[in-house]
Amino acid sequence: MSTFQQPEPKDRPARLTVGVVGAGRVGPALAASLRLAGHRPVAVSGVSDASRRRAAELLPEVPLMPPADVLRHADLVLLTVPDDALPGLVEGLAETGSVRPGQLLVHTSGRYGARVLDPALRAGALPLALHPAMTFTGTPVDVQRLAGCSFGVTAPDELRMAAEALVIEMGGEPEWIAEENRPLYHAALALGANHLVTLVAQSMELLRTAGVTAPDRMLGPLLGAALDNALRSGDAALTGPVARGDAGTVAAHVAELRAHAPATVAGYLAMARATADRALAHGLLKPELAEDLLDVLAGHADGATGAGGSDGTEGNAR
């Protein structure tokens, strides 16, 4: 159940003109959500053909213009560019006098907090970091997915209510993240979401190699149940040969992966060692079974990497 209530009218942002700098997958979706809340998108910038198509689909009739012109037209500006481009963009906009006093400047980077907007703050802007913890497709479905999506929010204390109100208006749930914790927060999301895509894609490829005609249909219920169990129970949800200490099965897995998909071996071993550590620490893996399992993993790790040992995992687990 949500811990946040819809803001009272006195706490809600006034109806704002909205601009988007960087029409990637995120910006147009957020602007479309703000439009549903009564705000008015008025300008968007995009360079690539794909970004222009996204803007046309999600923000029809909103004109395309250079970033400086977007800031001139908008009360609220969404800076939705890649992380590495954000500091330079902010500095450039501030140096060229594009930033107006009292203008809400919002970036959606998970890595950065509000401090990256300091050049704009010195020019009088109101800085907000609102990062949606969601994967985006660049299609209208993204607007629907924002319902109930958590946002990592970082802003000066005096802007906290405004930041939370904007998130709620987009259908999201604000979660306050301290400035110094933004990189760790973002690393946690990348570990869980980005790497999950890689693992699922590899699993589907291996199933096709094994002769499964519909790997997505096979994996869907299994992965859905595993995710639900993990979110509900944490490490207690661990199952499978590593958590059980089935060293022979794990050795057979690695042999098959070496034969059919050698590029997956390093990832399998790394995840197996991490799983063994967690299973042992939580009493799911019996110490007497862990010995053989970790010997298997250490032995295969030596062969896969050409380096000795198992990066300390065996010693930590024991």
TrEMBL record:
InterPro entries for this protein: 6-PGluconate_DH-like_C_sf (IPR008927), DUF2520 (IPR018931), NAD(P)-bd_dom_sf (IPR036291), OxRdtase/DH_put_Rossmann_dom (IPR019665), TM1727-like_C_sf (IPR037108)
UniProt organism field: Streptomyces phaeolivaceus
Origin superkingdom: Bacteria
Any Pfam family matching the protein: DUF2520
Residues covered by the Putative oxidoreductase/dehydrogenase Rossmann-like domain: 12-132
Name recorded for this polypeptide: DUF2520 domain-containing protein
Domain called DUF2520: residue spans: 149-275
